[in-house]
Amino acid sequence: MVHGEAWTVKELFVTPNEYIYWSIQIVMYPFMTGLVAGAFVLSSLYHVFGIKQLKEIARFALVFSLALLPVAMMPLQLHLQQPQRGIEVFMTPHFTSAIAAFGIVFSTYGAIVASEIWFLYRKHLVEQALALRSKANKSASEKIQHLIFSALTLGAYDISEKARQQDEKAVKVLAGIGIPIACFLHGYAGFIFGSVKANALWMTPLMPVIFIMSAVVSGIALCMLTYIVVMEIKRFLAARKKTTYGTYHSVEEIKGIEINVIKMTAKYLLFFLIFAISLELLDLIFRGYTAVKTWDILRSVIYGKDFMDIFVFQYGIGNLLPFILFLLPGLTIRRTVIGVILVLFGVFMMRWNVVIGGQSFSLTFAGFMHYHLPIIPHDIETFKEGLFGALMVIITPFVLFWGLNKIFPVFKEVH
Amino acid sequence: MITRRNFLKNAVTGIAGLALPLAAIEIVDPKKLFADKGETQKVRWAFLVDTYKCVGCGLCVKACKLENEIPYDANVTRTWVERYILTKDGRIFADTPKGARDGFITSKIDLGEGRFQDIKKEDIEKAFFVPKLCNQCENPPCVQVCPVGATYQAADGVVLVDRKWCIGCGYCIMACPYGVRFFHPVYKVAEKCNFCYHRINKGMKTACVSACPFGARQIGNIRDPNDPVSRIIRTERVSVLKDEYGTRPQVYYRGISREVI
After folding, report:
1. pTM of this prediction?
2. Residue B80's closest chain A neighbor by CA?
């Protein structure tokens, strides 16, 4: 079977080779990179601009962004027809292609995030390494831990006040450089689509900016959601054990910190959400107003075939509803959870409507293609590029975060 | 301490220092070098489709599939033929069932999803067939977007794919405004019409040109002033498809109507 045939249904005049070649994994790719970039920008708001109220969530957002980083590449690998040659994008880049920049941008960004985390956690790493070193009769797991922590210190054991100050300075500088690079990482994902002149829906210079704005929105939303889940677990444990848990002393204290952090972060979420929606609407209005040759087919896709996906799911449920939820006075944790889940859904639908929507009409401008997500896989292709492949991509960052949290504890006071 | 004099002195030295290595590492463009030496490429392949002559028999599609080992029943093809029917009430119908591999055996228009529409003969204002294939663009967007350089333009203008290098990302398929690219069902890499490169380099015609009983398809060298195809392109009224994309396609059409896209 031809690639794409399994999930494409053609209607009216479509040329023989047209299929929905870029499927669910290419929806996941900008969605996941968006989360990476967004989480990083959130953490930088504290480190660079010194927004103190975000201190609690900043460290968490940074480590989470590292956990998300490898996952930005995963959907691309799952989508390639020759995944074993994927490394060639790094090794033999062809620089007229937007995708070729991926290797450089991705590794630069990875290096910045990793070194920022290193500077941030250096004291903790040194303390752990020294504590484990001095311990007699180490168990097997402690021996491994000792090895990991010693290696991660990179031989720098100076944690004097002066050294710590230098660390803080380095964190600030890295976070500062990181913002434009994070935006570039995601903006260029938008460029990959925006620069395809053959696709009437994708081709707009606004695409990279729209992608960055919605990326920040989704990154903040995911950080808020994960933060709430972790804090709620802590609250539950603290209540059950009736003792102190970690650095927090009581259930009330946890609750107080949680709602404060959430209220502050929600403001930034709204701010970026307004930007994202304005740009998307501007794009839509502009297309309708200028009404060039391709507008006929775009109109029938936007207002006809994809009406539910765009106006009901994306703008209605994904943007307007959470907007109202956050604006109503007396924000509660429960309302926030619903809000951020809807925001994440809205951003996902935006990616879906760009990637799948852009392929839902033919190059003939006289035919349509419908996408049917493979649910039950019957071969490797429908597994990789189906529901299960997408779920794999969603689950992986949380597994990685769980592992990273063991080395870089995000909720313990380590400074 | 920085004085104005020192600052200016250092700035000038710095700029001079930067400018020198930039000039030293200028990359030599082989094309420019050849042009300077007066050696120009002697062959530039171009294609001519005479839509007045096409009857939609599909022998070209069949020949192409067999010649280029595109699985016969796979729903992809390097070349195909489109049928356009314009009715008296201004409606446009078009289809290409299986790329017209078996020709147009019924007068019913294929609407996809297993639906067909019959159009009465007396309602038809005009009808014609349009063969399509890779335009071997002078400015190919597919070559531009390939992240690893697996697809490239040969000196004679034909755009080729390296099957051993293609990573199968599909970006070239997305970038082509003509929909000529697809994934090969067996090799799982990008695939496209290459003007039967293995044949034209041996002085033969492409499979589709050889198979066409009506001479609707012709291939020639646009650089050769005596080439019949080149002469028609220069002296007659021909057009190309979707030139608004700036791709400079090299498949020329005679008798094309504005409805064709």
Report:
1. 0.88
2. A16
